[in-house]
Target: ABC-type dipeptide/oligopeptide/nickel transport systems, permease component
Amino acid sequence: MRYARGVQLGLMWASALLIAPAFAQTGSIFTCTDAQGRHLSSDRLIVACLDREQRELGPGGVLRRVIAPTLSPEERLRAEERARAEAQVRARSNDERRLQQALLMRYRDQAAHQRERALALQPIQAMRQAALQRQQELEQQRRAAADEWAELQRADPTKAPPARLAQRKADLEQQLVSQDALVQGHQRELERIEQRFDAELRLLQRLWAERDAAAMR
Model:
């Protein structure tokens, strides 16, 4: 580790020695605060501050630029990771702004949003209603089969009901289970759509208020 750090410092010194003459010809003054807290200045890049920020001042003390520290490979990797994370945050922020702008363009007011909600719900509501109707039909058939079963049992308790009736009763029970799952699935989809539009509406109410306030300025 010490050897690697020594190599790094050696490279930093060599880099400074190579570029310092070029800086010296510009008439600039370089300032920094070193690791011991000393305020240093020079007419060339300050080697003792290669690992920290330096300022290049022109005539009259005007700031020309801020020179970033020379980074080690590990520091450079961390800096790149920070830059990537910041870029991702900016990308998400840009995506959010684009989404908000698209929502404002699509829904000028709450009435337009409500119309879109109704259109999205309509086909699912129709499918759920059809599934409920089929469920009622199956329930009626199941009750009829159960009544027939009970009638045969009353007529002759010792005689087993016909196999066809037992199979019919079992089939209806299974169809009712499947139909109930279908109805519940449609209900969950309706709730999901409602939740999506509710979330959009909360966002849109804020965006509409900001838009209207900006228009009144």
